[in-house]
Amino acid sequence: MKGRSYRRGDYEPIDRAPVTKGFIIPQRVVSALMAFSAVALAYMLRISLSYAITQMVIPPHAHENGSIITNPDVCPPYEDELVAIENNQPIPTVVSVTTDRYDWSQELQGLILSSFYWGYILTHVPGGLLSAKVGGKYTLLLGVVIATVFTVFTPMGISYGGSTVLIIFRIIIGMGEGIIFPSCNTLLAAWTPLKERSITATVVYSGGMLGSIFGSSISGLLISNYGWTSVFYWFGGAAIIWCIIFYFICYNNPESHPFITEKEKQYLTRELGELKRRDDLPSTPWRKLLTCPAVIALIFAQIGHNWGLFIIINDLPKYMNDVLRFSIKKNGLYTSVPYVVLWIVALFTGVLSDYLIKRKYLGITNSRKLFTSIAAIGPGVFVVLASYAGCDRVAVVAMFTLGMGFMGTFYSGIKANSLDIAPNYAGVIMAIANGTGSLAGVVGPYIVGVLTPNSYLTEWRIVFWITFVLFVVTTILYDIFASGEIQDWNDPLKLKEQNTKSNGSSSEKVNSVERTI
Question: Domain coordinates of the chain in residue numbers?
Answer without folding.
Answer: 27-278+289-506
